[in-house]
Amino acid sequence: MEIVEGIGIGVAVVLAALLILFIRRALFTRSGGIIRLSVRVSTILDGRGWSPGFGRFVGDELRWYRMFSFALRPKRVLSRKGLVVERRRLPEGQERLSMPADWVILRCTSNHAPVEIAMARSTVTGFLSWLEAAPPGAASPRLASQDWPAA
After folding, report:
1. At 17, which helix (H) or strand (E)?
2. InterPro entries under this entry (predicted)?
3. What is the model's pLDDT at position 121?
């Protein structure tokens, strides 16, 4: 009888965890301004270290949440004021196995620290528009180079 109770408690815990993940995701996605976004959290091995998640635009910030996390706070926050896109490229090598084929990788500098983010090609235009949007009279040197290769 103890084994059955233990299995029942284990199943209840797993179901509760899945429910919490579902509710967390539903809360974030219902408010709009959400994009699928992967962030490279480790550069130890070439082509690896990508973590899937979603980004949420809130004012002058892009808040990134890990896909499989219980945290209600973003794992990383990119401020529009300190974010500069250095270049973009297509996934190479191992990266092609870890993300969809139509994704583009953007190498950015966020407050002088490098960060790589990946998103769908169709999302890049909206992201760059958000990045370039600035209050009237503010300078907008957000894009380091306009002669990017066609992605």
Report:
1. helix 2-29
2. DUF2550 (IPR019675)
3. 93
Whether 65 contacts 28, CB under 8 Å: yes
- Model pTM score: 0.69
For residue 44, how many other CB atoms are within 10 A of its CB?
Answer: 6
Half-sphere exposure of 143 (CA within 13 A, CB side): 14
Q: List CB contacts of 151: < 8 A, sequence separation 6 or more.
A: 88, 89, 90, 104, 121, 124
d(CA 117, CA 13): 33
In 3-state terms, what secondary structure has residue 24? helix
Residues of the chain where predicted confidence (pLDDT) is lower than 50: 137, 139-141, 145-147, 151
- The pLDDT of residue 26: 64
Stretch (H or E) spanning 6: helix 2-29
CA distances from 73 to 47, 70, 86, 87 (A): 27, 9, 27, 28
Q: Is 44 helix (H, G, I), strand (E, B) or coil?
A: coil
Give the helix/strand (H/E) hosting 52: strand 50-58
As given in the structure block, the two tokens for residue 74 are: 């973003």
Confidence at residue 86, expressed as pLDDT on a 0 to 100 scale: 93
C-alpha torsion sign, points 9, 11, 12, 17: positive
